[in-house]
């Protein structure tokens, strides 16, 4: 399962957000640095409005959504790349993740101490970015030493490595993330092997207070984060971690009423989960029967046999074809039979590239 790591400076709302994401009090949310020492791990359901209507059509009460794994990682401080605070542990934890959600404090509260003494989201973002860039710079320098030795002996791959290093190193020396560098697919495959922290796709979670949630664009801190993210080609999701934590104890109707009371129509956590899922390059195909309705996670671009393999390796091994109906067509027709009668069910072979929302019945023989 792919993982997204929740990072940020101490006391910006990381653990509160993690609690809201996982709908449990699993993380220790405390008003002091390093309340989270070991990374808490939570498997979170991806909100999908398609599952319940589909379940009604096939008459099942069992719904299994897609999931993504979130890690709540200890807070970082200046000097982390040199081992300050819990820096070495922080860097090791984030290196294991596939994507980063950086929680940025965009609210004022004199009762919650900020590690830097004041609220300045851009300074906070840059603090983490610089520490990650410094860690990557050390990685790049070690890689350069090895590649230079190999290039002298005529290794062509080492020469390609050096060309890439010459493009990446100046960015890191400026404190900029390596993900801002445009790379070809072949170059991406090479750089992926270096496990650079700043290559990981990033979402900034702008954590606001309840008073500004209804109109976050009026919050100058949010404006600053959006402008910064635009320059780095990163995503921004506005959340109120404290409010989201309060939503955990409410049922669906109460959640809706509570959100409307605060001037919003959707949960920031739901938006964040969806953003993280898609940022990781994932999508869902659906299966529906009397036993259950389930969303299955696959990378975008997956072909039908490999999608079948996510259900069971035997189905991939014995794949014959896939019977596919688009979700919209199935809902409009009201049943598989009606969709088939209208010619909306189609048989696809081994080269078919799956689409998000395909409702699938795999045919196989083993």
Brief rundown of the structure:
By secondary structure, the protein is an alpha/beta fold. The protein has helices at 14-22, 51-58, 87-95, 121-152, 156-173, 185-192, 210-213, 220-232, 241-247, 252-261, 268-279, 304-311, 313-317, 327-333, 336-341; strands at residues 3-7, 40-45, 63-64, 67-72, 99-105, 202-207, 235-239, 282-288, 293-299, 319-326, 346-348, 358-364.
How would you explain this protein's 3D organization?
Helices cover 43% and strands 19% of the residues. It is of the alpha/beta class. The strands form 3 sheets. A 6-stranded mixed beta sheet has the order 2-4-1-5-6-7, sandwiched between helices. A 3-stranded mixed beta sheet has the order 3-9-8, sandwiched between helices. Strands 11-10-12 form a 3-stranded antiparallel beta sheet. A hairpin with a 4-residue loop joins strand 8 (282-288) and strand 9 (293-299). Helix 1 packs parallel to helix 9 and helix 4 (121-152) packs antiparallel against helix 5. The protein is flat, with a radius of gyration of 23 Å.
């Amino acid at each position: 399962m792919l993982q997204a790591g929740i990072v940020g400076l101490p006391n910006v709302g990381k653990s509160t957000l993690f609690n809201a994401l996982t709908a449990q009090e699993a993380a220790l949310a405390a008003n002091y640095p390093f309340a989270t020492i070991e990374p808490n791990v939570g498997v979170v359901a991806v909100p999908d409005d398609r599952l319940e209507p589909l379940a009604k059509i096939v008459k099942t009460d069992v719904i299994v959504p897609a999931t993504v794994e979130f890690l709540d990682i200890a807070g970082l401080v200046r000097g982390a790349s040199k081992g300050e605070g819990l820096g070495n542990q922080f860097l090791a934890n984030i290196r294991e993740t596939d994507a980063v959600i950086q929680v940025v404090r965009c609210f004022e509260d004199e009762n919650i101490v900020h590690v830097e003494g004041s609220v300045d989201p851009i300074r906070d973002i840059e603090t983490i970015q610089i520490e990650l860039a410094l860690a990557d710079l050390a990685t790049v320098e070690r890689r350069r030493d090895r590649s230079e030795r190999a290039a002298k002996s005529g290794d062509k791959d080492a020469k390609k490595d050096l060309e890439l290093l010459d493009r990446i190193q100046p960015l890191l020396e400026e404190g900029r993330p390596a993900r801002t560098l445009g790379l070809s697919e072949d170059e991406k495959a090479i750089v992926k092997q270096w496990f650079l922290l700043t290559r990981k796709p990033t979402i900034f979670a702008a954590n606001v207070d309840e008073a500004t949630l209804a109109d976050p664009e009026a919050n100058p801190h949010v404006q600053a984060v959006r402008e910064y993210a635009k320059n780095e080609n990163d995503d921004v999701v506005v959340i109120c971690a404290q409010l989201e934590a309060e939503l955990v104890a409410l049922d669906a109707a109460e959640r809706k009423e509570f959100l409307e009371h605060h001037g919003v129509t959707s949960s920031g956590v739901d938006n964040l989960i969806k953003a993280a899922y898609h940022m990781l390059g994932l999508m869902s195909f659906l299966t529906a029967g009397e036993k259950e309705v389930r969303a299955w996670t696959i990378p975008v671009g997956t072909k039908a046999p490999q999608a079948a393999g996510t259900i069971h390796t035997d189905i991939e091994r014995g794949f014959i074809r896939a019977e596919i109906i688009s979700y919209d067509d199935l809902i409009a027709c009201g049943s598989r039979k009606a969709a088939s009668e209208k010619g909306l069910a189609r048989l696809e072979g081994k080269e078919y590239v799956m689409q998000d929302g395909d409702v699938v019945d795999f045919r196989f023989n083993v």
